[in-house]
Structures are given as C-alpha cells and as structure tokens.
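Deliverable D4.2, example record:
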Amino acid sequence: MSAEATNPEAHPEARPELRRRGRTRLDLRRLGRAALLGPTSRDRLPDAIGHVAEAHRAHHPDADLSVLRRAYVLAETSHRGQMRKSGEPYITHPLAVTLILAELGAETTTLTASLLHDTVEDTEVTLDQVREEFGEEVCFIVDGVTKVEKIDYGAAAEPETFRKMLVATGNDVRVMSIKLADRLHNMRTLGVMRPEKQARIAKVTRDVLIPLAERLGVQALKTELEDLVFAILHPEEYEHTRALIAAHAGERDPLPAIADSVRAVLREAGIAAQVQVRPRHFVSVHRIALKRGELRGSDFGRILVLVGENADCYGVLGELHTCFTPVVSEFKDFIAAPKFNLYQSLHTAVATPEGYVAEVIVRTRQMHRVAEAGVVALGNPYATATADAAECEEERVDPTRPGWLSRLLDWQQSAPDPDTFWSVLRAELAQDREITVFRADGGTLGLPAGASCIDAAYAQHGEAAHGCIGARVNGRLTSLSSPLSDGDTVQLLLAQDTSSGPAAEWLDHARTPAARIAISRWLDAHPDRAMATTSAARAPLSVVGARGGGANAVADLPDAPVRLAGCCTPVPPDAVAGFVVRGGAVTVHRIQCAAVAQMRAVGRTSVAVHWRATADCRVTLLAESFGRPHLLADLTEAIAREGVEVVSATVEPPVEQRVRHTYTLQLPDAGGLPALMRAMRDVPGVYDVSRA
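Output generated by the structure prediction step:
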C-alpha cells in the first residue's frame, strides 16, 4: 500500500477490457494536480473524485456522497506533500484504488475506507480519528488493511500483515476487497521498480492475492492481476501470447457472426437476451494455446448470453443445443451447483456448420454482476442487521464468509511461526476446488478437493480428532486415509480413550493445514508414543491353544466322533445338521451354512444331531477393529470379564489401520453369547464382531 512508482503506460496491452468498455484511461497526473489545489466549495465534490462519484452513482443512484467528500478531504490533507516514486502526488493512489472499487459496484462504506486506507499507515492520522469521524465500520476496515510495523516484526512483517488482514477479513470481507484493488493499482504502476522487486511483488501476487481474488469471486480483478503477473514473471511467453493476439486482430474473427446466429435463434424462440463477444485475457489465451496447440479464430474469445431469469438460462441452453451441434464434454452447470466462490453460469460449447467451435456462457444479469465483482457486488453484509443483533454477544454472521475462509481462520491460530503460516497459506490457496460433505448429524463440512476422512475429522472435532479410529462413508466402513468426494456422508468414529493419538502415517493423507498442523504438533509432543503407535499397529500376534471336538453336540451315529465345523461354529441352540466325512467322523454345521448345500449336492450321508442338556459350548468369533496400542489386551480383558475361556486367538497384520482378530472361545453358557459379543463391540476401536 505504500507508494509504488507510477507508470501509466506499463503493459497497456494487458488490459483489453478497457478497450472493450470504451472507457478512457484516467490521467492520474491531472488528478494529482487537482488534488494539490485543495478542497472545493462545500456544495459539491472536489473535481479530483468526480470520476469516483460518477462510477458510484451508476451502481447506487441514491448514495450519499457527502461522506466521500469528507473522506477525500482528510486523505488529501494528510497525504499532502507525499509523492509516489514516479513523482506524482500520493493522493492519486487512494483515488485510483477507490475508482476500481466504485466501478465494481462497491457501496459507500467500502469507498470511504478505500480513500483512507493508507492514512493511518503513512500519515499522522490515527484510528481514533477515523473512528470518531467515520464510525466503527470504516475504522475496522482501515485497520484491517494497515500493515504491521516492520520495526516490530522485521522479516516476518509481510506474513504477519497478511495474517492480520485475513483475520479482519473473517469479520468483514470488505477488508480484502480493498487489499485486492490496492494491489491491482500497485501492479499497474510497477513499471519503474527494480526488476528484482517487481518479481518479488509479482510472486506474492501470484501465490496469495490472485487465489484470494478467485475465492472471493472478484474475476474482474483476478484476470487483470493474472495478466500483469504473467508479463513480469514470464516475459517470453507473454510476448508470444501478445503476438498471437495481435496476429488474430488482423484476421477475420468468426465469433461476431456466430453471435449474430445466436441472437437470431433466441429472437425466433422469443427469449429476450443480450449476446456479446468476450475476448479472452492474455493468460486465458496462453492456457488455451497450451491445451489445444494451434489456435483457431474462435479460440480467442467466448460468447456471453445475458438473460433476466434463471429459467431463461436453461431455455437458451435448449435452443443452442437444438440449433447447433453441442460439444457434450464442455457442458457444465454452475447454476444448479454453484462454485464455492459464488460463481453461477451455464457453460457449453457448440459447433457451427463452418467447423468452428465456440464456447458459450449463459447467465442472468445478476449472476454476471456477481461473477465480475464477487463479494464486492454483495454490498454491505451487515446492512440488514438490526440493533438487537448488533447488541448480541454472539459474533455477527457474515453471509459472505465462505467455508474456506473459516478453515483458514481456524488453522492460522495454530501456526507456530510466521514462516509456517506463510508457507502453509500458499499451499492452502493453491487448492482451487472445494467439496461439501455431510456429517452424520446433518451438518456439512467444506473441504478442499482431495481431502480425506482425516481432514474431515479435524474439521469437525478439532484436536479431539486425535482419537479418531475410523469412519463410515455413505454407510460403509472405510479407513481414515480414504479420500472424500463431493456429496459424501461421513460418520467419524472416536475412541473413548482420550489419551490415544494420531499415527505418523496420517500426515501422508492429510490435505488441510488444520489437520497437518494439529497432527505434527501432537507427534512432536509425543515422540515416544508416536513411535509406539506405529510399531504396535503393525505387530502381528498369534496365540493358538488346543482345538476341541464336538463339545456338547451328539450325533445319532453310535461311536462316531463329532466335531463342530469351523466355517460356521454352531452353538446351542442353533439348528444344525450333521454329515459323515472321511474317517467316519460327523461334522456339524448350522442349517444356514453354505456348506450344508454343498454336502447334500455331493451326496454326503446326513446324520441327525442334537445338543446335550449341558449349556457350555465352543464358538469362533471375528472381531474387526482399528489398530491402536493395547487393543488385544483390552479385548482379552473384556472376554475374561464375561467368564469365557480363550481357546485360541489370532491377530492378522493390519491393512490400512484395520486389524482382524479371530477368537475360539469356550462359553460356560451358550445363552451368554449375545452379551459377550456386545462387550467386545464396546471395546474402543472395535467396530464389528461376528460369528465365524
């Protein structure tokens, strides 16, 4: 926000939108000279902000401009004598930033704070003065965009400034709107800075500001920032793209003719629509060139169709797909499923008889306004708040605060140092898609694309997720490492043992900063236990005892040995069937066992079997669980509390943190089997117990 050198002619070809609008570039030098003349009479705005007033009234005809006059007078007075590095009066910078926001449709409070956004940082004006003169909201926004003192933070000043700004944005997104416009003007006027400083500023813009503009939906700022960064960081590719666009300008453009055809089709269908050709910006042309190789005339722009109502969008789509050949793979419905940055439109592509393929965007005029200006187009998020709501102790709910911002605000509190915050912030903002998953209690979680059940656990439970032992996704049991998809329903299973903690392998599957920071902190604080968790989860164990015979099963075949089948482990009072096998022994199966049908199919001799009067029995149970320390001991203890003898036990090696236990047990009373299985299921980490 401090003075960057002004170069009005820097990269003019990177701003084709100005030519499309027909708006002339503002002469900042003239505005600067007007500013030096001081305020004008009280009955009108100073000439220097006449452009701002005109742009503001275009979106808000009834706006009270008196507060803008007062803000301008304070800004001009406080900045008087300060010059930008190009020699222009410094007041030209807040004026230009305010004009950018006014053209996007920002409301009066945002423009007031924009005029004052550098006063506290660069002049003698204090926050108390701003609060007294313009109110609490303007003061909060100005404070949010004010940099922290470098003398206090040293090399950490930049990341700490962004941390402060993001926290303020969590309470009022207008803070970030001003920051984005501020960076755009500084990027426009970066031409006379040293190349190394240009590159440093451009990289931060690329890694942080452009993703933030995308997530807040401010496409008008994002696209111009992309082009300016492209010109600085990739000059050769930029020049090549500029040459492609210049060469195309001299050729016949097929898009206007296609747009005329679309107008005719919609006119005949009785759909009132505005059809226009939207040239692609530089970075978009570069991406298309990389994707398709040789470019055709229709690749340099897209057709935009604006209608009045949502239903008209689908009417336009139907007409386009009826009268032209649709490219099915290019169809996307962002109206039924909006992007997480407020964006709504229908995207399609149609082929013409001449062989051209034209991309078409269909949206309402309100959707178009939001697509261009994002959160700026939503105005004041607190405009409808009542006095009672303002007095409520609970935090005000900002309808423009999306899930990604809430996640960011949560994890930044846990970032141990500015370097970690800065690196993790860039990694978080690099995630350009978001999914929504449903919680078992009916709530929702917003997560970046590629997030796993581990990320969902920490998003829902915070540090309590250290004890997560598994999850059910769409009703089916799955490992914590399983990735989630948009629309999944996830139920997270937590251990009752609060001392349990995450495994080091969780870091391989955690995508969100909140999860990674929490896991790393726990592992750093418990190095020995973390190692024990890993080794214990992977240690196979097998304890085998003597296998019994038929126990209390009696076959109607004198002197024939009887044994219970291991495939179904029948116990009283199961309905059973016996079959004579080799050696003359009788094997006893449950009637429902699949082996019964097989025995009968191969002609095995069937023998009647009944249970003795005694109640004891032998049974094999399978216990499936998530690996954790002391699990085998806890299961064995639960079995012993039921008065059951363990004949044999086998623990298979874990697979994706899941462990399978097989127990052969001698019960004193078959009637106690249901209670035994319930007791085993109640052991933390065990999610299912069944008969073998």
